[in-house]
Amino acid sequence: MRNSLMALTLIALTATGTAAAMDAEEVIKYRNSVMKAYAGHTGAASRIVRGKVDYKDQLGFHATAMRDISLLIEGLFPEDSDFGETRAKAEIWSKPEEYKQAMKDNQQAAEAFLKAVNDGTADAAGFKAVTDSCKGCHDKFRAEDD
After folding, report:
1. In Å, what is the CA distance from 69 to each residue of 1, 40, 130?
2. Structural domains of the chain, with CATH
């Protein structure tokens, strides 16, 4: 009976570890999808702001999405999601205050850009503040493609 209990405990611990790893892998896939969505909205907004396309009536949609997604990003890097198909650098977890500040900078820039869009004062400089905050975070916390 004792051996059976130990075997069941071992199986439960193994299953739990596998589930935790599977969950972390799903978090990474979700994170990648959210970041691609952010890049998509940023790319679309860039084309509008730079006058490459004439969809000014849709700029608010993209600016709102950028702001909303910026509010999600910080929570997309929980502990134990630093492996697998991710370009996240270890500094996200080893320098959490710097990472949180980078997220705050991005959120503020995205919020300011959305406000400018809503006020009718959006320009390339305001948009650049958003992309600069993205680049600043990527430079510190995202690895280059292999």
Report:
1. 53, 11, 12
2. 2-141 (1.20.120.10)
pTM (two decimals): 0.82
Q: Are 129 and 66 in contact (CB under 8 A)?
A: no
135 vs 99: CA distance, rounded Å = 13
Q: Enumerate residues 6+ apart whose C-beta is below 8 A from 84.
A: 24, 25, 28
Instruction: Note the pLDDT tens digit of each residue in 39-95.
Output: 999 999 999 999 999 999 999 999 999 999 999 999 999 988 888 888 999 999 999
Q: Encoding tokens for residue 33?
A: 């999808």
For 10, the token pair is 């071992």
pLDDT above 80: residue 104: yes
DSSP state of 73: H
Q: What is the DSSP letter of 88?
A: B
How many other C-beta atoms can be found within 10 angstroms of the C-beta atom of residue 44?
18
Q: Give the list of residues 6+ apart from residue 27 with CB closer than 8 angstroms, or none.
A: 76, 78, 81
The predicted-structure confidence for 17-40, as pLDDT tens digits, reads as follows 443 555 888 999 999 999 999 999
Euclidean distance between CA atoms 64 and 58, whole angstroms: 10
